Amino acid sequence: MINKKVNNVTEALEGVKSGMTLMLGGFGLCGIPENAITELVHLEVNDLTCISNNAGVDDFGLGFLLQNKQIKKMISSYVGENDEFERQMLSGELDVELTPQGTLAEKCRAAQAGFPAFYTPAGYGTEVAEGKETREFDGKMYVLEPAFKSDFSFVKAWKGDTAGNLIFKGTARNFNPCMCGASTITVAEVEELVPAGELNPNEIHIPGIFVQRIFQGKNYEKRIEQRTVRKRN
């Protein structure tokens, strides 16, 4: 069986260069590839186009890359928790392409499945549809959305094996599965890495065919983006 394990995050990110387009899994701060993001900061690559549901917060996640001005363009769905993101967007320093959340997920899945484009009703009649082909099906208008094209996908899973099979945990699953195999190279970081054959096949969420490199991450903070508690009686 093919062994896709690499020794560390440095080996996992070999080939990443300035100007590339990257997919990064996660939703808020849940399930983000913390080790890969930290290594991107250390590599000092810039002019990046990042495809991610959102841009983290000012002092964590993709916020690190924004602080260092390493991101040229963000393709996202929700960007309301990052003050630096807002500042760069309003000043024109950062190019932002806002995409409906379901469309963002489907553009990843289309790339994963090898489909060049798909029709969706989301965004018809709004700025989202400007310059795009539209078509009517059964009396309803749809917008043609192209699949994403990206160089690397960085995803975070709970458990994986050396063949690249992945299991996600709870809501940390989010955008990670649909980004696997959606880029030229998919890099998975996992909390627990086991030998091939040890995972229960019935529990695997993403088969290893969608993953090119896998490594065991470390020092996960798993920060909570918004902590809300009920007032004591």
UniProtKB/TrEMBL annotation:
Keywords: Transferase. Gene3D superfamilies: Glutaconate Coenzyme A-transferase. One of its GO terms (molecular function) is transferase activity. SMART domains: CoA_trans (SM00882). Pfam families: CoA_trans. This is CoA transferase subunit A. It comes from Tenacibaculum geojense.
